[in-house]
Amino acid sequence: MARSPVVSIVGTGLQYPPHKLGPEFVPKLISNCYKENAAVLPANHPLWFQDNILTNTECNCLFKEYGIPLAQDAARQAMEDWGGNPMDITHVVAMTCTSTSSPGFDCTLCQRLGFSKHVRRTLLNGVTCAGSVAALRTAYDLLRGATQEGTPARALVIATETMTVYIRAWLETIAKESTPNLGPTLFGDGASAIVLSNGIGAKEDEREPIWNIRGAQSTLVDRPGCVGIRWIPTGRPEDHQVVLAIFIWTPHH
After folding, report:
1. What secondary structure letter does DSSP report for 91?
2. Residues acting as catalytic residues
């Protein structure tokens, strides 16, 4: 089979936790401006009402208890959508901002999903809102490298967050320092996953490409405050080509 010139998305998955936290969990002044968030813990969980603020270690334990199962469900959805064998996953790119453990949650996830012990894992930690773009770009580069070697490659890209376990710490900071923080109203919990393929050695059970990724490039622009995404069509819709996403980010000085 001829080598594929592109990396393709061949499976997707998305998983939200079952509980909802409404505006009563944020200061009334701003609560009316935002919708409810998905949360891994129910509204009557002791966490919300205890006197002490959770440590990072305790928050990470909650991530392991609630976040990894979310990641597992999202990953399984993506792999079922793809249709391939878990043992054919060659790379895993995992992203989170709400787990601080080392080794990362990707180790446990790979074991639960039945991947090869030799699967190549990459953990992206603390890259915040740029994480989705960074994870996709990283997986793309890895699979393009495999294409140059002429070897089959399938990558699971997984992002998982349990932001709500930090809500007490956020609100404590707001109360003590009188520092505005919209984090409790903007961010909820959840996991999403995609499977990427370089097309080499595709088996009959594997899904045909949903979209093809033609390139991935990040650029730092020397203009303060310039943060955003521009979408530029790269082909006809019927060609299933992913549009080019340019993420423009300048660090704070």
Report:
1. E
2. 129
**Percentages (nearest 5) of helix, strand, coil residues in the chain:** 35, 25, 40
Closest CA to 40 of 184, 190, 192: 190
Helix ranges (DSSP H) in the chain:
28-31, 56-62, 68-82, 105-113, 131-149, 167-177, 183-186
Does residue 79 contact residue 7 with C-beta atoms inside 8 Å? no
Rounded Cα distance between 217 and 167, Å, is 34
Q: Angle at CA 226, nearest 5°, toward 220 and 227?
A: 85
- The predicted-structure confidence for 84-106, as pLDDT tens digits, reads as follows 999 999 999 999 988 888 889 99
Cis before residue 103, ω within 30 degrees of 0?
yes
State pLDDT tens for residues 26-48. 543 334 333 566 677 787 777 77
Q: Which two tokens stand for residue 107?
A: 């180790």
Domains in the chain: boundaries: 8-214
Nearest alpha carbon to residue 137 among 11, 15, 246, 5: 246
Spatial separation of the C-alpha atoms in residues 44 and 48, rounded to whole Å: 8
Residue found under tokens 């446990």: 108
Which residue, among 188, 168, 234, has the nearest Cα to 34 in the 3D structure? Answer: 188
Report the C-alpha gap between 171 and 185 in whole angstroms: 11
**Fold adopted by 8-214:** Peroxisomal Thiolase; Chain A, domain 1 (3.40.47)
